[in-house]
Design goal:
single chain; alpha/beta; 7-stranded mixed sheet
Length: 504
């Protein structure tokens, strides 16, 4: 009897082991047949790319400078948000904002004294910085910051990039080791000619300088090994190969190219006093900047990146309020232009107004969901040909970047957002609500972009999401992501969508 019981238990044990083995085999077979094949790996290393010691040492010195130049006043609170009046007509050169934070003379002087320490160190280090640029950096490439909820979006952005035919290598920066995802960083990204780096590994372990969120962007650019950088937010999609911009004017002569935001400039005029400039420098753009995309050459702009890093390190408490005064998008976006302006370095600020993309809400109000940014080279060439800034005299530049900032193109999160579905449709049981477009009708997409961008991005979201739905850390609690995504695709892109309709 005992022998029979033992035999039964042995049979059950063997069956369980066999089932587990088969499950592992089929999972492995599925992965081996995905587009992210191990054979496509650019680098088979385990773990993130180790930080370069020369860059660590370089940054450690500036960390000490920043700590010594820490502002000596209390955190700046925005009591009244700056006025955005005149944004629709904001063209040409910048004027001083009528809005002010109401800082006292003592506060302004304290900020100026701290700021001057950084400027003095930059000027003393001019020759060293030129040498550092030559020894620390080389080549051209794309830099982005991802990790956590932004990793699925970054994969979509990279897939869209490769559709342009771009061969530029990509460096993906994560804030910390906690955000590192082995399968993504060691299989998926290398197949897209991209690698993972960890920002915290470059920072001095006992440094009082901490960085997060908006502050990560400038750190990623400085820590990147590329000398010439195209920075893209993880939710910014290139519509053309960014190498076009790196190989032409105005980038080649300016070394820094920025794009406009929705709003007129709203920096507190005291910034120019704090920075030691006294007054508003001539030639600055009337519109505030939007940093979802940025071109920068560290030769000559490494000093302006360091100054931008200073503005970001002390951004949340001081410089973000000074630059934006509480206006939407307050963060790192003004710091890159400010660094160049204060140091008197060349830059090009695209003038062409961004193209708002979005949908009409149930209250009949337009809700922006994305921004189109235009070809800097097209605009620059037209300006040179006409020798005029008058928009009426120029041919409209081609669309170049599509910044899908709200909502992010994270499939699992997107499928839980009410705006993606028609609220007028009454549901029964567990039926999926009727899906709608959020970037406008197909006809509008074709007229403004020459392509149905929403359908293209959804295709990439579905392909990557269905392959990686059990891989992304951010989706560990998500269910039926692929199934729900395919249902939305069928409802919206294979049949005429019903309900709300987006507009451009």
């Amino acid at each position: 009897m005992l022998a029979r019981a033992s035999y039964r238990w042995l049979t059950v044990f063997v069956a369980v082991v066999l089932l587990i083995s088969l499950s592992t085999f089929f999972r492995s077979w599925e992965n081996s047949n995905s587009r992210y094949k191990p054979s496509l790996l650019v680098n088979s290393r385990k773990g993130p790319v180790p930080p370069a010691k020369p860059i660590i040492d370089f940054w450690a010195k500036w960390t000490k400078t920043f700590d010594k130049a820490r502002p000596g006043i209390k955190k700046i609170e925005v009591e009244n948000v700056a006025s955005k009046d005149g944004s629709d007509q904001a063209n040409g050169e910048r004027k001083l904002s009528p809005s002010s934070l109401g800082l006292s003379d003592e506060q302004i002087y304290s900020l100026h004294k701290a700021h001057k320490k950084v400027l003095s160190q930059l000027r003393r280090s001019d020759k060293d910085l030129r040498n550092a640029t030559a020894h620390l950096y080389s080549g051209k490439g794309i830099v982005t910051v991802a990790g956590g909820q932004y990793m699925p979006t970054a994969i979509v952005s990279l897939r869209m990039l490769r559709k342009t035919g771009s061969k530029l290598p990509v460096q993906v920066f994560l804030q910390s080791q906690k955000e590192y995802e082995p399968e993504i960083c060691e299989s998926v990204l290398p197949a897209l000619n991209a690698e993972c780096f960890v920002i915290e590994s470059y920072l001095p372990k006992k440094s009082p300088i901490k960085v997060t969120h908006y502050q990560l962007k400038v750190m990623a650019i400085i820590f990147s090994s590329f000398q010439e950088v195209v920075f893209l937010d993880s939710d910014c999609f290139a519509l053309r190969d960014p190498a076009e911009l790196l190989n032409s004017e105005p980038y080649k002569s300016k070394g820094l190219v920025t794009w406009p935001d929705y709003w007129i400039n709203t920096e507190d005029p005291v910034f120019y006093e704090i920075a030691g400039l006294g007054d508003l420098p001539p030639g600055m753009p009337a519109r505030s900047r939007e940093s979802g995309q940025l071109l920068v050459n560290k030769d000559p702009h490494l000093p302006s990146l360091i100054l931008a890093a200073y503005y970001n390190v002390f951004g949340p408490d001081y410089y973000y309020p000074i630059f934006s005064q509480g206006v939407d998008g307050m963060g790192d976006k003004e710091t890159f232009l400010a660094g160049a302006v204060v140091l008197g370095l060349p830059y090009y600020a695209v003038q062409e107004h961004l193209g708002p993309i979005g949908y009409m809400q149930s209250n009949k109000e337009f809700k922006g969901a994305a921004m189109v940014q235009y070809h800097a080279g097209d605009e620059y060439a037209a300006l040179q040909a006409h020798n005029s800034t008058a928009a009426a005299e120029r041919k409209k530049p081609r669309p170049f970047f599509f910044h899908a900032n709200v909502p992010k193109m994270n499939l699992a999160q997107l499928l839980n957002l009410p705006l993606l579905f028609d609220p007028t449709v009454k549901l029964k049981n567990d039926e999926m609500p009727k899906g709608v477009r959020i970037w406008g009708p197909k006809e509008s997409n074709m007229n403004s972009l020459g392509r149905d961008i929403e359908k293209e991005v959804w295709r990439e979201m579905l392909d990557s999401g269905c392959e990686l739905q059990y891989v992304f850390k951010d989706w560990k609690d998500a269910t039926k992501v692929c199934e729900k995504g395919r249902e939305h695709w069928k409802e919206v892109f294979e049949e005429p969508p019903k309900g709300l309709s987006g507009i451009v």
